């Protein structure tokens, strides 16, 4: 005969209310949690999630829609999310929409049919129309990395300070004497792409430098996009001395293109990359890169979703959390600023 919660209660001496609270992801005293988990293991208890879902209207599943699952950034964020969610008994259903808006819509509909408790979206569509399906059904939605201004105040979100950190990256290049700075960004409708471009433009203008449209190249946020973007920049602008690559895979593409063109990073061309922590220190010279708090982003995304699920739909205002990315200095930027003149001193 299958073990029941009554058996767990009898084994532990704890009330059914406490056992039920633990089984449904609620907070119980640490000592009670330990006792319950030991009893579960000893009695080989397993939860019938289908039956519990019918009773509680919860499936203990979170749906995730991601633009490209083979993108290192998205993969690492989801891994960090899963650790937190699994510890609370939630499973994750991941849908890769391949950066396709129609597949993104279909992914949301699929997840809603699966009765997920909440949806985490790294949106491809800048309008976020696909998320209206979930909002109308009172399914909590969390936007990660890419925001949708139209949905502000209606969904939770977590992102990083893309504008200010891009200002800092551009300012660093300018401080090292670079004036002709190329930038490789993603498509216009990608939220993060536009915010990083905004930081670049603001920093150039702040220092009285001309923002040359030829110095801005758009493409896919991919290795191929970075490769082609760098080639295009250098073919049109022989006077460029530095490049800012605003995405992990784009940075790798730039490195490959520079290598193929026999251009030395940090000598023939300076480079500031993005999110390339895993190999930034291996490559010589070491890269100057913008690093996002990827693990923190994933963990806090999961915590926001859990709080929303446990608190209920309208129990507190929608959260818009912004984390801090930072510039990590390596040796991929050459200082070409003219030496400072020092006043001459004359002996009397």
Number of strands: 12
Indicate the mean pLDDT: 88
* Contiguous helical run count: 13
Helix content: 40-55%
Strand order, largest beta sheet: 2-1-3-4-5-11
Characterize the overall form: elongated
What string gives the helices and strands in order? HHHHEHEHEHEEHEHEHEHEHEHEE
Class per helix and strand makeup:
alpha/beta
CATH architecture of the largest domain: 3-Layer(aba) Sandwich
Question: CATH homologous superfamily name of the largest domain?
Answer: Response regulator
> How many domain regions?
3
Secondary-structure blueprint:
Elements: H1 5-12, H2 16-23, H3 30-43, H4 49-56, E1 61-66, H5 72-87, E2 91-96, H6 101-113, E3 118-121, H7 132-136, E4 141-144, E5 156-160, H8 162-175, E6 181-185, H9 191-206, E7 216-218, H10 223-236, E8 242-245, H11 248-260, E9 270-274, H12 277-280, E10 288-291, H13 294-311, E11 320-323, E12 326-328
